[in-house]
């Protein structure tokens, strides 16, 4: 009897033992990917820092050639008593597309908080990755908690359908949230990676009909279900996954007493036509509008193009009706790159249920938009803000942190106007961002005929391009490296006595190399040339601290 029990125990545990041995062997021989969220690095000053692992995106994307464009925000491996640590979770808007560098709202927030609290070590760590959704946010939450954040900011929800593992995404493994979350947990094991890679090798067709990122846009590569009707099964699946994942994320933060700030989402409703709509006799519809036929309003309730056309008509006649129908057009758009309003409803509901602070970003943007309708004034294309829009986001989170008293002593409070005048972004990065948007708007899905292709040739300027325009184009085409371009720009502006532009360069370099005393020194020198002695002292103090720290490590 005892032998039978022992035999059953061995039989039950043998597969686990085999898997464990396989896992150890694969790790020893370096097989597979290490999907840790943070990598350890040694700064120029000899201190240990952590930075987001740029290869972590490989966990969420398969067969897309996607390379992460996450930000590289260094933060101390061992948190000090003087450190205030903010983590940001989200996707491309949180990353800062299309401006990145000094134009993203996390870095604008860090810049302003650093000025407000010069004696603190302000860390704003951006963990956002383009084209991910709530599955990725849930997957990295435990790793963020390990780093002892003082507050976490979550701005996410646009990618629930086409983001990695989303209900309408080409990078999907199923529509049941529990199974997808289990899949993500298994991805951390090398034996599972081996099985998955072997399966893909067997199942991969000899020739693929799918476009790659090199041939078209990431948006098209990720969009498997290009038409997701309102209230369809796929539509509901996207809502369910966001609701469930956000609940699990917030449960984890609540368990560890981590403060969280939630935010509603913004999208362009006034100046972006529905990407895909049911067919419409546009000429006949416009004629019916002139006759004020009731069919006009009935059709607008179910057809995206009809709703958008009616909304644009009302822009010059009745603001409330314009807002109503332009919003409806976004809701009825069959290509769901803009989050449906239900996503914002879930965010508001979760903030209330968990007693969390909410930044109603949509309401803030509406308050600064003509007629209260979001459009090109603050948003570059369908969802990504322009520089002013990103600044408004940073301002909203700055004010919310102040309101919550997460930091004490706001004697150096930086006003909206002061902060806006001190946006730490170069003209070069601004132009590069505008180029990226203009090329995107010539591609799919803005031009559906461009499916599977990219615009051939592009010239931002044709005659007498400025230094900034030439440099921005070279950066966009990956013909030059950003840090070398910035060094060149700094010296040029300094020689030209254009000290304000040189200061912007130095400030942007500080984001990339926060542990290097030289970049603070560069900023201080430009402030001194601008006769801003107080600001110069701020940068020189930072520089001297890092210089002394480096000397003590040598």
TrEMBL record:
SUPFAM superfamilies: SGNH hydrolase (SSF52266). InterPro entries: Ester_Hydrolysis_Enzymes (IPR051532), SGNH_hydro_sf (IPR036514). Keywords: Hydrolase, Membrane, Transmembrane, Transmembrane helix. One of its GO terms (molecular function) is hydrolase activity. The chain crosses the membrane at residues 7-30. This is SGNH/GDSL hydrolase family protein. It comes from Flagellimonas aurea.
